[in-house]
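To: structure subgroup
Subject: Chain for Friday's discussion

All,

I'm putting the inputs and outputs inline so they're searchable in the archive.
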Amino acid sequence: MKIRIVGLPDAADHAVELLGQVFDVIEVSAPYPSRGTGRNVRIYVEVRMR
Protein backbone atom coordinates (compact mmCIF):
# COMPACT_ATOMS: atom_id res chain seq x y z
CA MET A 1 0.00 0.00 0.00
CA LYS A 2 1.31 3.47 -0.79
CA ILE A 3 0.45 6.44 1.41
CA ARG A 4 1.14 10.13 0.88
CA ILE A 5 1.60 12.27 3.98
CA VAL A 6 1.27 16.05 3.70
CA GLY A 7 2.02 18.40 6.58
CA LEU A 8 4.63 20.41 8.40
CA PRO A 9 7.98 18.58 8.49
CA ASP A 10 7.85 17.57 12.19
CA ALA A 11 4.24 16.42 11.95
CA ALA A 12 4.92 14.43 8.77
CA ASP A 13 7.91 12.69 10.40
CA HIS A 14 5.77 11.84 13.42
CA ALA A 15 3.06 10.40 11.16
CA VAL A 16 5.64 8.09 9.56
CA GLU A 17 6.64 6.88 13.04
CA LEU A 18 3.01 6.19 13.92
CA LEU A 19 2.48 4.25 10.69
CA GLY A 20 5.37 2.04 11.74
CA GLN A 21 3.39 1.02 14.83
CA VAL A 22 0.54 -0.30 12.70
CA PHE A 23 2.18 -1.42 9.44
CA ASP A 24 5.49 -2.85 8.27
CA VAL A 25 7.12 0.16 6.63
CA ILE A 26 8.87 -0.88 3.41
CA GLU A 27 10.10 2.45 2.08
CA VAL A 28 10.00 6.14 3.03
CA SER A 29 10.82 8.90 0.55
CA ALA A 30 12.72 12.05 1.28
CA PRO A 31 10.47 15.02 2.11
CA TYR A 32 9.45 17.03 -0.96
CA PRO A 33 8.19 20.62 -0.70
CA SER A 34 4.45 20.84 -1.30
CA ARG A 35 3.18 23.01 -4.10
CA GLY A 36 2.29 26.53 -3.12
CA THR A 37 3.87 28.94 -0.71
CA GLY A 38 3.32 27.00 2.52
CA ARG A 39 5.91 25.17 4.58
CA ASN A 40 4.25 21.77 4.13
CA VAL A 41 6.15 18.79 2.79
CA ARG A 42 5.05 15.56 1.11
CA ILE A 43 6.41 12.19 2.19
CA TYR A 44 5.57 8.99 0.33
CA VAL A 45 5.45 5.82 2.40
CA GLU A 46 5.09 2.23 1.20
CA VAL A 47 3.72 -0.15 3.83
CA ARG A 48 2.61 -3.75 4.13
CA MET A 49 -0.13 -5.14 6.35
CA ARG A 50 1.16 -7.20 9.27
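Points worth raising on Friday:
The chain has a mean pLDDT of 96.
Strands lie at 2-7, 24-28, 32-33, 41-48.

D.
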